[in-house]
Write a structure and sequence with these properties.
Largest sheet: none
Low-confidence stretches: none
Structural class: mainly alpha
Strand content: under 5%
Number of strands: 0
Order of helices and strands: HHHH
Shape: elongated
Number of helices: 4
């Protein structure tokens, strides 16, 4: 068991709760409906992929993955880039003065998510059983 990765995953999930609640309550008055939708999308993907971290860690503990480290960090990178950039984009016009280039990070984060899922699929495809 990789204790530090379990701790990181727990922190990422705690941040998903805190950021999601903060966006839904404290920041709601600063965002229009469109920006709230962007924020909610970031929060949803943050939660889903935070849970995926635990799936990867559990499968790694069972020695069912050969690329667990890469998959884990692809998911982490996706959360930071995809969800993080959506959080920032949602607040860009109301609270933050950010350059327009921040939007480029969203598809990069999406590519990390897709890469992690495809690498996970490859692991299952290449094994006779898990």
């Amino acid at each position: 068991m990789n204790k530090s990765k379990y701790i990181l995953a727990a922190i990422i999930m705690a941040l998903a709760v805190v950021i999601g609640a903060f966006g839904a309550h404290a920041l709601k008055e600063y965002m229009d409906d469109y920006a709230q939708g962007i924020f909610k999308t970031g929060s949803f993907y943050h939660f889903v992929h935070g849970l995926a971290l635990y799936i990867v860690l559990i499968l790694d503990d069972k020695e069912a993955l050969k690329n667990a480290n890469a998959i884990f960090y692809f998911f982490v990178s996706g959360i930071v880039l995809f969800s993080g950039s959506l959080y920032l984009l949602a607040l860009k016009d109301s609270l933050l003065a950010l350059p327009g280039i921040i939007g480029v990070l969203t598809p990069m984060g999406g590519l990390f998510f897709v890469s992690a899922w495809l690498l996970l699929a490859y692991n299952f495809f290449s094994k006779k059983s898990i």
